[in-house]
Amino acid sequence: MARDDETRAAVRQAVSVSVATGLYGVSFGALAVAAGLNLPQTAALSILMFSGGSQFAFIGVVGAGGAAGAAIATAGLLGVRNGLYGPQVAPLLGVHGWRRLLAAHLTIDESTAVGTAQRTRSAARAGFWWTGVGVFVLWNAFTLAGAVLGDALGDPRKYGLDAAAAAAFLALVWPRLTGPSAHLARLVAAGAVLVALAATPFVPAGVPVLLAAAVAIVVGVVAAPPDPTDAAPEREGATP
User: What is the pLDDT of residue 205?
Assistant: First the structure.
């Protein structure tokens, strides 16, 4: 596949993920207002926090009558995972100054997944930026729609919006779980799921996700190949 074709494919992938994820913002907007937040507060959470899992954790604690400190701590704990993505995407983007700050704000599950799934640097950059900006714009737009129209829309789950983002993410991950060398990936995924499910009844919200991520990190350290370039995707300008 030519580089231009790979870049266009990355953009198409980014747009589909952005739409699926952005639509689910309707659910957040509706639930945030139902939890007692007003429209400006709901909009500010999506603009400034911009981490769906952390946002849902925050309003979940607030809606259950929890203290503001508990809500902030829970959301922050779940948001730690975004910090782990930095070492993955920084070498791909190579940005500095204000662009680095913008990239940090747009470093979320979806932009990291689309960017790192590409074979070339140009496709990785296109995938990251198109996904990050696309999700940001649509997530905030649909957050406002959900906050304003929440009562009229009813439960967003009846439209299947709660499954849209997960389905798009699964489509991204699936090729890595079905290839001829995907045995280790399947084992890591299964181990992470088991750890998260086992921990969920006993630890605060957000911790199971971090524990699941720890499984992948430990396996990555233990099973790392002797030459890191063997496991790295092909990048532009690489020496054959």
Answer: 59
* Phi and psi at residue 224, to the nearest 5°: -60, 135
C-alpha of 112 from chain center: 7
| Residue 180 three-state SS | coil
The predicted structure's pLDDT at residue 44: 93
DSSP, residue by residue, 207-234 = HHHHHHHHHHHHHHHHT--SSHHHHSPP
CA 196: distance to chain centroid?
Answer: 17
pLDDT of residue 86: 86
pLDDT score for 166: 57
Alpha carbons 31 and 36: distance in angstroms, whole number: 9
Contacts of 222 (CB under 8 A, 6+ apart): none
What one-character DSSP code corresponds to residue 45? Answer: I
The structure tokens 């399947």 sit at: 186
Measured between alpha carbons, how far is 17 from 165 in angstroms, rounded to an integer? 7
Task: Decide: 232 and 239 in contact? Cβ < 8 Å.
Answer: no
